[in-house]
């Protein structure tokens, strides 16, 4: 069987986040699978050097096209170029607009339907319209969480039997407890800090995190300090480190820091290379992700794998991912986020560390690839 794969999300940039990480991790895991199937990886730009190398049974087809690639150029190629794949797998929301072969599409989340105001009008309309046709025409659909599966069923009326949940994995060789003070020095980070990692955009609720951090500092200042720490063991000197590249509608984040006078306590590192993330995770007092919505939350898994307690929102897929290994908060309430942080770094911290290290065993890229292959094979059998 010939399997076509749209892997553009893995090939867009070396600074991968979110769906780029999903596509990159899964592509490498599919490459490792022992199978007689042949793979054709479709791209619209030249192959980046860290993608799997071409080999027998694994080839790249680069089809340059400036705009509307999945809408026009890709469908044209599937109809006219031989040999034609037997099935086509789109790794991120958008399947070819028209296809002579069955399609499988992976859906990260439908947060854009719940929070349309957190997207630019152009991005929202594309996500809404292109995701809808991709899901409705697909032979099979992959969701990266049970929460996303429920949303797909609710939004599009899809038969649940067509949807399979495959959790993303994490890089087990890279993400583990790692100490490297040199990396902290590089970014001007001192010892005690809370850590956030993700794109700077409204859905991540970074403004809420900053307000919660301000409340922590205010509470400590107003209350007697314990020797070596503050309220509930809160360190006397505590910073908030925010890592990630700018997404959209991010100006208010920086304005919130300025309005609260936290310029010296909040550190923005910008995008950090993945090789540096384990040290930033491991040295952190706690990892905090108070998002309004997450389809999965790969950074949360990475943090648990690094032995860092996690504080996350009790919304969307996050409770499903974290299980009993973290602290849950109300993202709309900075006081709730603040209380969650205090719990994470208090006397129960070691319990959360151990629970997190156990929890991450559920997430494995090779297992994800195996389940993905089963879905792809089912799509062909159901023709």
Indicate the topology.
Elements: E1 2-6, H1 8-11, H2 19-32, E2 38-43, E3 58-62, H3 69-80, E4 87-90, E5 103-107, H4 111-114, H5 121-137, E6 140-143, H6 146-156, E7 163-165, H7 181-186, E8 193-197, H8 206-222, E9 239-243, H9 251-259, E10 266-270, H10 277-283, E11 286-289, H11 298-305, E12 310-313, H12 318-322, E13 327-329, H13 334-344, H14 349-359, H15 365-381
Parallel strand pairs: 1-2, 1-4, 2-3, 4-5, 5-6, 6-7, 8-9, 8-11, 9-10, 11-12, 12-13
Helix pairs in contact: 2-15, 8-9, 8-13, 11-14
Explain the overall architecture:
β8 (193-197), α8 (206-222) and β9 (239-243) form a beta-alpha-beta unit. The radius of gyration is 22 Å and the shape is globular. The model is unreliable at 221-232 (pLDDT under 50). It contains 15 helices and 13 strands. The chain is of the alpha/beta class and 383 residues long. The protein has 2 domains: 2-169 and 364-381, Glycogen Phosphorylase B (Rossmann fold, 3-Layer(aba) Sandwich); 181-362, Rossmann fold (3-Layer(aba) Sandwich), CATH 3.40.50. InterPro entries: Glyco_trans_1, Glyco_trans_4-like_N. GO terms for molecular function: glycosyltransferase activity.
Short recap of the structure:
Helix content is 40%, strand content 15%. It has 383 residues and is α/β, with parallel strands linked by helices. A 7-stranded parallel β-sheet has the order 3-2-1-4-5-6-7, sandwiched between helices. A 6-stranded parallel β-sheet has the order 10-9-8-11-12-13, with helices on both faces.
